[in-house]
Amino acid sequence: MLITCPYCGPRDVVEFTYQGDGNRTRPDPASTDLNAWNAYVYDRVNIAGDQNEIWQHSGGCRTHLAVTRNTLTHKISSVRSTHAEPPAPPKPARKKPRAKA
Amino acid sequence: MAETLSPLDTVLRAGRYANTAAKIGVTLSEVSPGSIVQVAAWPDTEAKVLEGIAKTTKLKLGGEPGAGAVSGNVAAFGIAPGRFLVISEDEGLADRLLGAIPATVGSVTDLSHGRTAIRIEGEKAEWLLAKFFAVDFSKAKFPVGRGVSTNHHDVFAQIQRRTENCFEVYVFRSFARSFWKALCHGAEENGYEVR
Ligand SMILES: [Zn+2]
Fold first, then answer.
1. Which chain A residues are closer than 8 Å to B148 by Cβ?
2. What is the predicted ipTM?
3. How far is the CA of B22 from the centre of ligand 1 (A)?
4. How far is the CA of A7 from the centre of ligand 1 (A)?
5. Which bin fits B68, alpha (ψ -120 to 50), beta or left (φ > 0)?
6. CA B79 to CA B127: how far, in whole Å?
7. What SUPFAM superfamilies does the record point to (chain B) (predicted)?
8. Domain B15-32+114-194 has CATH 3.30.1360.120
9. Mean pLDDT confidence for B103-129
10. pLDDT value at residue B172
11. pTM > 0.80: yes or no
């Protein structure tokens, strides 16, 4: 498996460290909501398909990366530095002008 | 500055080894640069850090990944976003860099005693490196001056092409002896010289 680091280019997976599910949101550190902390620590969606993950290029530039990997095929569809802005959501397709009746 | 003790002292012996019948294509040696310094920019100060490096060393680095330069007894290359390794034969480079790069611009870390620099030279240098690292070292993709951060198993390595047929590899000093031995084994089939 190759991961294309935005700085280093395509590199073998042995240079990277898996840092887990990229979908989790850490509750406010002051939060005492046990359910929210339980969900943060234990709940995983375990997707069969495209999954958001965090990896670190630990054997290279050491950047933390937000990676979208297909858990069935290992195909990686996107990689960006976690410092980079997430891509804007796709613009809604223009509505076709309705044919006049 | 305190004298640097080499972790290779007990294993580095000059001579020709292994397949000496073959044309010796690679020479291994230890370089002992007076200074190895890491410079890191803050998120918005990379251009100023590059200015500081240029002011101190006269080396002009592009900001693109792995870009580097070699001139006289100084060399530098990009090792990560906003981070650069600067090497000089002279001691005291960290202090000179600090003069040009105050804490508001970036951080300067003296790694001189923390890294061991190994020189791999000769027409088989690319061939030997390719045995250890999954990186394209061809001249087209990896021209003189260019650098890379990579690893061989758990041995983290930063590598720069110094001349057409010469590379320098910077490894953590605690891994240096083991890595040196591995390099020697890798070079055996073609014969190698240690200087
Ligand atoms: Zn990288």
1. 8
2. 0.89
3. 37
4. 5
5. beta
6. 22
7. Folate-binding domain
8. yes
9. 97
10. 97
11. yes
